[in-house]
Amino acid sequence: MKYNPTAEGERIKKLMERIESGDIKIPKFQRNFVWKQKSIINLLDSLYKGYPIGSVLFWRTKTKIKGERNIGGYVLQDTKESYPTNYVLDGQQRLTIIYSVFTNRKNHPGMNDIFDINYDLNAKEFMPYQQASAESIPLHALFDNKEFLNHIREFTPQMVDEASELQEIFMNYEIPIVTVFDMDIEEVSIIFERINSTAKTLTVFDLMVAATWFEKFDLRDHIDFLKKELQKKHFSNAIIALLSNQKPRNLITGTKIDLTKALSVYNRKEFHHIFPVAFLKSNKIDGITLNNINSVCNIIILSSSENKQIGSKAPSKFFTGSHNTFLN
After folding, report:
1. H/E/C letters for each residue in the chain?
2. Picking from 59-73, 131-145, 161-175, which range would have the lowest pLDDT averaged per residue?
3. pTM score > 0.85 for this model?
């Protein structure tokens, strides 16, 4: 056996220092951060209660990977050429949360406010800072003693004790770290693929990126390039043309759409959203962005007059009666 991996505990503060110094980075074949704020809070609650959160796997090497990423995408120090780098093979999401939550955003203005979490001493729970009471501690203050003391100076003696206990818990929590050495990039890609092959949160595409990745080829980069090239050529229009061949009907009246009029020129007045923009924004659906809203999957041939009738209604309100099918 080349290497018999064993886990060694490492405190949160030490891990944060290693991340800040550039010692720990993400290999390019890893996907970006995807956890929601509820999952972030659940992880913090597990740490607070002393629950195990699983080990983190590093690959330590002097090989510098093309396109390596910092934890969370934040700009951190570069590792010196002569120094080895610890690439995260498993545990990227957890490390990103730990570093981002306990780091002051003043030092990283681009940091997402999803990581601004407080512990509310009245409610006895973690919550977004906007919802927390005045008797709460921002978690980024726990590892900055000056800021921590500034926050608790108006607290009652009992609350000071509770805040100090909170700080001590996170200061002393140790995360199991497994580090593998002396492996080439091909072996490491196989390890990553096998670790994540049963993970429900990874997509088939994520696994394909890992399975096909090597130093001079990154499938994600090639797909991103292709998407940009297709966007220039307006292949969304090609998909609309394919759908028009299915004899689309008007959502409101149920009559067949005059395709000669709709497709004679690129007429924006004849193209609208299945899920109206106002409906999606008013319901504050997680993960919805302008790109999601304007996805070709959400575009339909519809005149502006009928679009005004739909307004901000949900599709369930206007896909009714005899007109609930717009494709013949």
Report:
1. CCCCCCEEEEEHHHHHHHHHCCCEEECCCCCCCCCCHHHHHHHHHHHHCCCCCCCEEEEEECCCCCCCECHHHCCCCCCCCCCCEEEEEECHHHHHHHHHHCCCHHHCCCCCHHHCEEEECCCCEEEEHHHCCCCEEEHHHCCCHHHHHHHHCCCCHHHHHHHHHHHHHHHHCEEEEEEECCCCHHHHHHHHHHHHCCCCCCCHHHHHHHHHCECCECHHHHHHHHHHHHHHCCHHHHHHHHHHCCCEECCCCCCECCHHHHHCCCCHHHEEECCCHHHHHHCCCCCCCHHHHCCHHHEEECCHHHHHHHCCCCHHHHCCHHHCCCEC
2. 59-73
3. no
